[in-house]
Structures are given as structure tokens and as C-alpha cells.
Amino acid sequence: MAEDEKTPKPEGESPSSGSQEPGSEPAAKDAAPPPRAPSTDKPAPPADKPAPPKAAAAGHAASAKAPPRKGPVITTEITGDPLVDLVKERFGESITEAVATLGQQIIRVKRDSLIDLCRFLKDDERARFNMCTDLTAVHWPDRKGEEFDVVIQLYSVPKNRRIRIKVSLADGQSCPSVTPLWAGANWMEREAYDMFGFEFDGHPDLRRILLPQDWPGHPLRKEYPIEYRDNAWTDKHLEYREIDYDTSLIDVKYAERR
Fold first, then answer.
1. Scanning 30, 45, 135, 140, which has its CA 20 to 30 A from the CA of 15?
2. How is the chain split into domains, by residue range?
3. pLDDT for 174-197, tens place per residue?
4. What is the torsion angle, in degrees rounded to the nearest 10, for the CA atoms of residue 97, residue 189, residue 207 and residue 171?
5. Domain at 75-237, CATH homologous superfamily
6. Angle CA 57–60–66, to nearest 5
7. What predicted TM-score, i.e. pTM, was given to this entire model?
């Protein structure tokens, strides 16, 4: 019997685990796979984004639903308001109008009672309008004898309430100043004087505030021209020079100045 057959092999060892063909090289353990050739396939293009919505055609725009029209401004008489009723009772015929429009209460008073009404609204505990928030004017050239409205906006900080006072003036008539009652009205009255031309009686320093003191005219009057025009002030204070638009002379002129 051959020697190989007499010697038993260890358990767990495969017959070929230790065997190797003659002349062959030992196999490398855990050998890395060969590198792949670079792929010639191009990456897939990104998915197309959805196109933005197109504008409606001209024919469709006309068929679009138009916004609702605003109704007329409704002005109503103020009734049942304790403060307004008190003002009417106290000043009688001097109050020519007491109306509400767009949530604003408006009291129109005659010129001679303006200061008395404003003092009452400022000092009376039932009113306490301690702030003059605005003062301006409106020009109505076709309203003969009442060409201007002076508009005074009052606010009560303690009562959180607003009220608007109006007084009409004829062209050339002055308005009593409310600056002694509300110091902040000083600059507002100066602006109204500057833009409209009527004066405020009792103002401590009435002079123009936006335009030069010798500027002719008042820009917020309706007869004032809208477009720019040279006037006596520009002729007096501005020096006009002819401008040479020949660009070939620019370098020569700069050289002469140097």
C-alpha cells in the first residue's frame, strides 16, 4: 500500500487546501479587482423645470373681473354725540356745520369764534384736545367771499379722539393764530402763509418758511403756474451763463483754467 494511503489527513482540512499544482504561483489573498475603464456615457441632463405661467392675452385681460367701484363719499350730520352737541349749544350760530365723513368729525366755525372754540376744545375737561397735529389750507377761487378754508386737525391724547376744525376766509382776509394755544402750530401757520399768502393775526414770528422772503407769489394758490418759470427773484439772484456744447473745446478750456 502506498504511503499516502496509510497517513490520515487532519480533520477540517480540504484535500486541496495545502496542495498546489507544480510550477504555479501562490494566489494572493484579498486581491483588489482590476480597475474599470472610464465610462464614456454622458450624465443625464437635469429634469426640465416647469415653465412660468404665461401672461394673459390682451383679449383675456379685458374679460378679467374689474375691482368694485368706490361709492360716493357720504357726509352726514352729527347727531347724538355729547361733545358735538355741547359745542353746538355753547356756540350757537357760530357753528355753521357739524358733519362726519369717512370717519372724521368736522366742525365749521365762523372766523370771529375760532379762538374761543379752540380754547374750549383745549381746556374743557370733556374735550381736552391738547395737541394740534396739523394745520393747512385749501384754495377755492370760485367760492366768492370764502376763497380759503383753514383746516385745523386736533387730537386729544387723554380721550384718544380726533376732530377737524374748519374756518372760511375771504381772499385778503387774515386768520386768528392758534399758536398761543398750541405752540406746535407756529411752523404750520408759517407754511400756510408761505404757500397761500394769507396772514395769521397774533403769530409771534410770521415769515416764510419754505421759500425766500422776497419770492413772488404763493405756490399752492390755484392761479400759480404749475410749470417752472423765471420770475423777478430768479432774475435778481441767479446769474445766467451761456453753455458751450462744442465738446472739442472742453480740453482747451480746462487747460486755460490750469
1. 30
2. 75-237
3. 999 999 999 999 999 999 999 999
4. -20
5. NADH:ubiquinone oxidoreductase Nqo5 subunit (3.30.460.80)
6. 130
7. 0.67
